[in-house]
Amino acid sequence: MNPSISQKERIVSLDIIRGLALFGILLINVGAFKVIIEGDPLPDYSGINGIINTLIIIFVQKKFFSIFSFLHVFIFWGTILPVYAIIGLFLIPFYHTTVSTLKKWLMGMTSIYIISLMVKIFLPSQGAISSILDIFSNDAMQIFIMFLAGFLTAKSGWLIHIQELSKPIRWIQIASFLLVGGISLWIWNASQSGSSNVDSVTGLGSLPTTLFYLTTLFLLLENKQMVKFLTPISRVGQMAFTNNYVAQSIIGTAIISMIGLEVVSPKDILYIAVLIYIIQIICSTIWFKFFSMGPLEKLWRLMTYGTKPATKNPS
After folding, report:
1. Nearest to 200, CA basis, from 128, 121, 139, 144
2. Residues 6+ apart with CB under 8 A from 38
3. 130: how many CB neighbours lie within 10 A of its CB?
4. Which of 155, 194, 223, 234 to pair with 126, CA 20 to 30 A apart?
5. Closest CA to 34 of 280, 262, 273, 279
């Protein structure tokens, strides 16, 4: 095994994870680039389109914004911005708390989230209690859990000790993989049968799937050669503010308009997402040949700190 990567390389690893998360978010967002109005044809969910849609639900939906939450990326463009800003405020009381206290809160919030989803799935008719369950099982709760998990990971310094923690991380990876397999089959069956519980079951599988993705990536990116190979993806992650929603929306809308799509079906989502992502990798790589950060990241830093960063990439 290659020796543990340096702190600088570890930052690149986190940018790679952000870059991969951006692709997952892109798979969810592409369908929204084409607004459907009354009288327009609806997306086709039969045959291969139905299979692709179900696979996106199983492996992508609710998972990749969780990875962003874990990595403490609070800068989003679009309707998600106020949600992240408000949820982020709830982290302030935890700033000076101990690792032990953070662990207790994380376990407690996660338990409440999972129990709420389980009750919704198996005991759907709960009257007034349903409103309370909706609060504790929605996406905002999941985002806050991942915020806490990321905060705990950073505060405890686990990210700089991946190699020493490789054995417990491997066990977490295996356990989460088994959970992902079982819940994925559950989601598939629910989707094929037209069950109303698909969203709740997807939410139930989001945390173990995110955990499996993160542990796998953390272990994989301990390899220096893998980090080097995936460095172009890290450039996309470095420009998360610019690339996420902003560039993706502009490029995606342009592609849909150019090819004249009346409706965006799941198979269209797949190839459009891949095309957008390739364009972003190329543009981000070229950009960092001349600049040290993305244009919106630069603007955000200027507005926040009042300092102008260097324009030439020091690397």
Report:
1. 121
2. none
3. 14
4. 194
5. 262
Residue 58 CA to chain centroid, in angstroms?
Answer: 14
Distance CA 11, CA 216 (A): 17
Q: How many CA atoms lie within 13 A of 81 on its CB side?
A: 9
Note whether 248 and 276 are within 8 A (CB). Answer: yes
Residue 183 tokens read as: 């819940």
Helix 7-29 and helix 231-238, axial crossing angle in degrees, nearest 10: 70
Q: What is the mean pLDDT of each run of 10 residues along the chain (315 residues)?
A: 52 89 90 74 87 93 83 49 72 88 95 94 81 88 91 87 91 96 95 89 94 95 91 90 78 90 91 95 92 82 66 48
Phi, psi of 171 (to 5 degrees): -65, -40
Helix/strand/coil for 227: helix
Read off the tokens for 209: 């799937």
**pTM strictly above 0.90:** no
Q: Kindly report the length of the chain.
A: 315
**Pick from 226, 241, 238: nearest CA to 15:** 238
Cα of first residue to Cα of last residue in the chain, in angstroms, is 26
Counting beta carbons within 10 angstroms of the beta carbon of residue 33, is it exposed (0 to 12), middle (13 to 18) or buried (19 or more)? buried
